[in-house]
Amino acid sequence: MLHLRVPSQETQHVLLLLKAESALPERARVRVDSSDANYRLIPFTQDSPPKKVAHYPVLDIAIEPPAARNYRDHLRELLPANIVEATEWPTRHEFVGDLILMKLEEHQRPFGNTIGKALLLQNARTRAVFEDRGVIGTFRVRDLKLLAVRDDESDSTRTKIIEGGHHLWTDPATVYYSSRLSHEREGTLACAKNLSQELGRPLSICDPYAGVGPSLRPLIVEPNLVAELFAGDLNPAAVEFLRENIIHPAATIECADARELKHRPEMLENYDLLLVNIPHDSLQHLSHLLPLLRPNGVVRGWAIIEDEDFDNSMQHLHSMFGEGVNLEIRRSYSATANLCRFETRKKP
In this predicted structure, what is the pLDDT of residue 69? Predict the structure, then answer.
C-alpha cells in the first residue's frame, strides 16, 4: 500500500489535506518509519498523491489486513460490499457452551447461513450457530434453527457450559437454562453456607424446579454442606441432565410436579432450605411448597412481578411469612416488570 513519508510534526497537517481530497483510507493507521523515528508513514488511496502533498516521498509498504473486530467484518469477505453496507445486521448474540444463539429479523433470514459462517470465523471455539426463534412450550425451551456448523462437527444442540468454574451439560432446544441468574446462584451458595454454620450441621435441601442443576452444582461440591438433597423438574429431559450433572450420594432426583410433593409424608417439614425458581409462577406455587420446609427453614426464590403488583406481592408474602420478608428487585424483565428475589424463614 502506498504511503507518504512525512516529518512527524507535519502529520496532522497532511492527514487533514488527504481527508479533504477523499484520499485517506477508512480507519487509516499512521506508522512510525522504522528507519527514522522522526518520520511518519501515512497511507493514501489514490494511484498517486494529491498535488498538495506530492512533494513528500512515496513508499510502497506491504500491510497485513487489520484483524476483524466482529463478525460483521467477516461479512465483507462473504458478501458483496453493497449488500453489507445496505443491510442492518444483528448486533447481539448469546453464547451457550460451544453454541451461539442469535435472533434474526425477517429481512436478515435470507442471509442466515452467511451470518452463521461469519460468526464461526470470528469465534474459534464455537461449534455451531443457531437462530433463536423464541421460547416455546410448557417447558420454555428454545425454538432453534441451524444456521451454520463447522466442518466435521456435530450440529447437536447438546453442549457443556461452565458457570462459576462448574461444568454442566444442557441443551437449549430441550431444557430451560439461563446464564443471567449465575450471580443469584452465587448468592444461594452463600445463603446455604451461612445457614449450615448457624445450624451447626449439613443441610437438607429441596429444589423442585432444578432444571439441569445450575443452583445445585455449587452446593454439592462444597464439603460438608449437603446432608440430603431432593432435585426435581417437570421436564423429563431436564431430569436426565440432572442425573448427569448432580452426582451426590444423598441426592434424590425425580421427574415430579412440585405442587404434589406435599402429599408425600416423608417430605413434610423435611428441608432446611427450599429453592423456588419458576419465576412466572413462584408466588402462586408457594402455598403448595411450604409444607416441605422445616420451622425456621429458609425459602429463597425468584418471581417476575409487574410494577403495579409489587406492593400486593409483598403483602402476599407477609401474609405467609410475617414481616421478615426480603423482596428485592434484581433486574428488569420487561418495560413493566422486574425479576425479583425473595428470601425469608418459615414461621416456627
Answer: 82
CA distance 100 to 129: 5
Q: How far is Cα 342 from Cα 315, in angstroms, rounded to an integer?
A: 12
Taking residues 275-279, what's their average pLDDT? Answer: 95
pLDDT digits (tens, 9 = 90+) for 214-224: 999 999 999 99
- Concatenated DSSP letters of 80-146: -HHHHHHSPPP---EEETTEEEE---GGGGGGHHHHHHHHHHH-TT--EEEEEEEEETTTTEEEEEE
At residue 341, the 3 state secondary structure works out as strand
Averaged confidence pLDDT in the chain: 94
- DSSP-derived 3-state class of residue 29: coil
Q: Counting every residue, how long is the chain?
A: 348
How many whole angstroms separate alpha carbon 262 and alpha carbon 260? 5
What is the 8-class DSSP label of residue 340? Answer: E
**CA atoms of 328 and 159, how far apart (whole Å):** 33
Is residue 101 a contact partner of residue 93, using CB atoms and an 8 Å limit? yes
Grid cell of 82 as nine digits: 453493497
Cβ atoms of 216 and 208 within 8 Å: the answer is: no
Question: DSSP alpha helices (H): ranges in 56-181?
Answer: 71-78, 81-86, 112-122
DSSP string, 186-215: HHHHHHHHHHHHHHTSPEEEEETT-TTSTT
